[in-house]
Design brief:
The chain is of the alpha/beta class and about 400 residues long. The strands form 2 sheets. Strands 3-2-1-4-5-6-7 form a 7-stranded parallel beta sheet, sandwiched between helices. It has a 6-stranded parallel beta sheet with strand order 10-9-8-11-12-13, sandwiched between helices. It folds into 2 domains: about 190 residues, Rossmann fold, CATH 3.40.50; about 180 residues, 3-Layer(aba) Sandwich (Rossmann fold), CATH 3.40.50. It is about 45% helix and about 15% strand. Helix 1 crosses helix 16, helix 9 packs parallel to helix 10 and helix 9 packs across helix 14. The protein has 16 helices and 13 strands.
Length: about 400
């Protein structure tokens, strides 16, 4: 029996929450592991009693840097109280002087993204640029201080290894199609109303809260091109609102909102807002094509969710996207709205291509398994168990 401690305090939105929502239930099913999970109180409420899992609640700190400082003093106490043998740090930052072996889960691609830094400079977002530099320095030092760093894709693992000079191991995040589609609770009535079927309409979907690196502006600039060239109406559905303060992080939405105003007037863009995770499968199935223009990514769970739902994918040409989707997507240069529109047109005008992408996506989505991910993670933890050596 191995005793694990997962530091999940960094999970507040997006991929971090998706990770914990899936990994914790799978860990609870293992008879060879006892796991303590450190969470903020709001996230703890999502989980009922689970076998082999104990939860420790902590007050939510206002920001990653404050959380990092707090963890350096509080985590050793939690480790001692839990009796953990292996620490799994799930938020890009490590415990710098861990009394037990530590696995760092690194999944933030912004620290190694030249595009993100250029984007921040072009927007005059210098405070965020400095913040990212500080966090990047901490993230790189965290890799150096950890016993093992794990990344969710091979492409991102290679980036991190080159950046840090340390070995980084790729271990895919997973997917569970049965669990993803198990909740048949209808979508919120306000969302269902906006998704009412309209004959002769091409429905594009992009699942993301607003931020800069998901490159919303390129997608918005592609919409007038599509509307001009297609003989049918095009509608883009977003799972966010383009209002500052309505999205995680300090991202200002005014630039994207200005681009979207004309689209809103013609009802070609629909801001659904946050859709409950349990209901996302219903949203995917209400749309025709999944589109992502992101210029920085480490894994991208919505790609697998969309593939498992049978949607053709149009994705920016990133190494991570090609690794995850393979021949289940068509690709375009990440900052070209013209190329994005062209690829959407290809999919819409060729039922054969759309069907091929859909079939390939269904098959590809089966290659990802949370059970396999947890099996690999527990195996790596066993490999790190100390053999009588004393840690400083």
């Amino acid at each position: 029996m191995i005793r694990l401690l997962i530091n999940g305090l960094a999970a507040s939105a997006g991929g971090g929450l998706t990770y914990l929502r899936n990994v914790i239930p799978h860990l609870s099913q293992r008879v060879d592991a006892e796991t303590t999970v450190l969470l903020n109180a709001a996230i703890r409420q999502e989980f009922g009693p689970l076998p082999n899992i104990s939860f420790v609640e902590a007050a939510e700190n206002s920001g990653p840097l404050r959380r990092f400082v707090s963890e350096q003093t509080e985590l050793p106490r939690v480790i001692r109280q839990s009796g953990a043998q292996i620490l799994i740090s799930a938020g890009n930052f490590a415990l710098w002087n861990s009394p037990i072996p530590q696995i760092l889960l690194s999944r933030n691609s912004l620290y190694v993204s030249d595009d993100f830094r250029r984007d921040l400079r072009s927007r005059g977002a210098y405070a965020l640029l400095i913040d990212t530099w500080i966090k990047g320095w901490l993230a790189r030092r965290s890799i150096i201080r950890s016993d093992l760093t794990v990344a969710p894709s091979d492409a991102f693992a290679r980036q991190l290894s080159h950046w840090s000079g340390r070995r980084v191991l790729p271990v895919y995040h997973g997917f569970d199609a049965e669990a993803f589609t198990s909740d048949i609770t209808p979508l919120p009535s306000t969302v269902e109303e906006q998704l009412r079927p309209e004959q002769g309409t091409l429905r594009l979907l992009f699942v993301s809260h607003y931020n800069y690196y998901r490159n919303f502006e390129t997608l918005f600039r592609a919409m007038p091109i599509l509307n001009h060239r297609l003989k049918k109406r095009v509608k883009l559905f977003l799972t966010c609102h383009l209002k500052s303060g309505n999205n995680p992080g300090n991202y200002r939405t005014h630039s994207a909102a200005a681009l979207a105003n004309t689209l809103r007037e013609h009802q070609n863009i629909v801001e659904l807002g946050m859709v409950p995770y349990r209901s996302l499968h219903l949203l995917y199935r209400a749309c025709n094509v999944y589109v992502t223009p992101a210029y920085a990514e480490s894994f991208a769970h919505p790609l697998i969710e969309s593939m498992s739902s049978g949607l053709p994918v149009v994705a920016s040409d990133l190494a991570v996207h090609r690794e995850i989707c393979g021949d289940a997507a068509v690709y375009f240069p990440r900052f070209s709205p013209e190329a994005l529109a062209e690829q959407v047109l290809r999919v819409d005008e060729s039922p054969k291509l759309a069907q091929s992408l859909s079939c390939n996506g269904l098959q590809r989505s089966r290659d990802f398994s949370w059970s396999d991910h947890v099996e690999r993670l527990v195996g790596l933890a066993h490999d790190l168990l100390p053999s009588g050596r004393e840690r400083n």
